[in-house]
Write a structure and sequence with these properties.
Domain TtsA-like Glycoside hydrolase family: 10-97
Radius of gyration: 16 Å
Pfam families: Glyco_hydro_108 (PF05838), PG_binding_3 (PF09374)
CATH superfamily: Chitosanase, subunit A, domain 1
Distance between the termini: 15 Å
Number of strands: 2
CATH architecture: Up-down Bundle
Strand order of the largest sheet: 1-2
Order of helices and strands: HEEHHHHHHHH
Protein name: N-acetylmuramidase
InterPro entries: Lysozyme-like_dom_sf, Peptidoglycan-bd_3, TtsA-like_GH18_dom
Domain Peptidoglycan binding: 99-168
Helix content: 55-70%
Largest sheet: 2 strands, antiparallel
CATH topology: Chitosanase, subunit A, domain 1
Structural class: mainly alpha
Length: 174
């Protein structure tokens, strides 16, 4: 089964440290955690006040706790047999939210609903699929998503090269 701790260090290399880019719709982030996500979860998951100062001081273990609870566990990462498939779905979920799940569900096809919610039916369909073929199609689908997003919203064009670098970091074949 997949292991969150094996991918988390790589995720942090993508996410970096504290930034507040006015062009980024996510606003202020640290280690990839947006202020909005931090404010909604800091008290319950970390036991700290949900302030900008605490986001700026976010430690690696705190970031790991947030990523595990809010992203990895929501895709049932520990139950996914393929480490690489779990990593690519998790990474895209961190970066694009429910779009990561709807892409997966579209690739898995009917009778699975493309509702953006990762539940037991999605997990079963994922586990029953040809893992290598699904991985390759998912990787390409992610590249297509970013390209189409930048075309539809020219203001986001400045982020496309970074998104594609991140998507193509994953090997073409599982």
């Amino acid at each position: 089964m997949a292991d969150f701790s094996l991918y988390f260090p790589q995720l942090l290399t993508f996410e970096g440290g504290y930034v507040d880019n006015p062009a980024d719709p996510g606003g202020a982030t640290n280690r990839g955690i947006t202020l909005a996500v931090f404010q909604a979860n800091a008290r319950a998951l970390l036991g700290v006040a949900p302030t900008l100062e605490n986001l700026q001081a976010l430690t690696e273990p705190q970031a790991a706790a947030l990523y595990k609870a809010l992203y990895w566990d929501r895709i049932d990462g520990d139950a996914i047999a393929s480490q690489l498939l779990a990593e690519i779905v998790f990474d895209f979920y961190v970066n694009a939210g429910f779009h990561a799940i709807t892409l997966l569900q579209r690739l898995l096809g009917p009778p699975l609903a493309s509702d953006g919610l990762f539940g037991p039916d999605t997990l079963k369909a994922l586990q029953d699929a040809d893992q290598a073929a699904l991985y390759a199609r998912y990787r390409q689908g992610r590249i297509d998503y970013y390209t189409e997003l930048a075309q539809a919203h020219p203001i986001l064009q400045r982020f496309l090269a970074g998104w594609l670098r991140r998507a193509t970091w994953f090997p073409a074949q599982a």
